[in-house]
TrEMBL record:
InterPro entries attached to this UniProt entry: AhpC, AhpC/TSA, Peroxiredoxin, Peroxiredoxin_AhpC-typ, Peroxiredoxin_C, Thioredoxin-like_sf, Thioredoxin_domain
Gene3D superfamilies noted in UniProt: Glutaredoxin (3.40.30.10)
Name of the protein this chain belongs to: Alkyl hydroperoxide reductase C
The protein's enzyme class: oxidoreductase
Main location: cytoplasm
Source organism of this protein record: Gluconobacter kondonii
Subcellular locations according to the entry: Cytoplasm
Key words of the record: Antioxidant, Cytoplasm, Disulfide bond, Oxidoreductase, Peroxidase, Redox-active center
Subunit structure: Homodimer; disulfide-linked, upon oxidation. 5 homodimers assemble to form a ring-like decamer.
Protein function: Thiol-specific peroxidase that catalyzes the reduction of hydrogen peroxide and organic hydroperoxides to water and alcohols, respectively. Plays a role in cell protection against oxidative stress by detoxifying peroxides.
Amino acid sequence: MVRINSPLKPFSTDAFRNGEFLTVTDTDVRGKWSVFFFYPADFTFVCPTELEDLADNQAAFDKLGVEIFSVSTDKHFTHKAWHDTSPAIGKIQYTMLGDPTGAIARNFDVLIEEAGMADRGTFLIDPEGKIQYIEITAGGVGRSATELLEKIQAAQYVASHPGEVCPAKWKEGGETLKPSLDLVGKI
């Protein structure tokens, strides 16, 4: 079962990005922050709203040094066709991974075997290749890029400030906590 601090498992797959096909592997992900954003299928309903939301916030992800990988069990050819025909998906500049065998979705424990599609799963991977954030929602529940950005900022802050933690509702620049015996029972 995939959990926080689980390592990214090996994979190699075909992808579509900025009008080109490419191969992406787990080694391409190491050394930087990345998001794996699983969704059920191309040419559907909730999925394009989520992917467009990510695309609309691309500059904010870039500022944080985070690479986005959207993943569905469609082939990279289908990603290109969707990109070329949908105004919402046409905005995408991040990498769209094809996972027609479901291998990557299985690696993250989000494959719905009987449907051959992935659940809506979001995974933040740190530069060491370990999972630092997981969100999985029901098929009809879309995710928010703004909320994801806040989680990334908190994870990056904690990673670069050992001994500090981010409380509920933390926003970049906000107060953090330094866990200690003195705080026990006082919060």
